[in-house]
Fold this protein.
Amino acid sequence: MKPIIIIIHICVCAALIFIVLLQKGKGAGMGVAFGGSSQTVFGSSGATTFLQKLTTIAAIIFMVTSLSLSFFLRQGPSSSIMEGASQQAAPAAEKSEAPAQPQTGDTNEGQK
């Protein structure tokens, strides 16, 4: 299931980029928005174009696939880097806490 969602997610991501790049900028119609042509049926911005509807649909699909991927990846086995480090540090701590061995044949005893 995850590979299918990943493929859909990548395709929608690429489509969303291309759709947004194909659209005309909003700054191009600012003169019309503040100037005349208030007689239009849908207001100064005009009707919603096909590309705007397609952008909305692609954005919704992108969000749904993002949420579903995060849900599926959260369900996997949880592991931590620190689990292995704490297990390796415990034997090293035990070795350093071992008492020192008494030395035989101490050279200082012979000088007294």
Notes: The two ends are 83 Å apart (CA to CA). The helical segments are 2-22, 30-34, 50-74, 81-96.
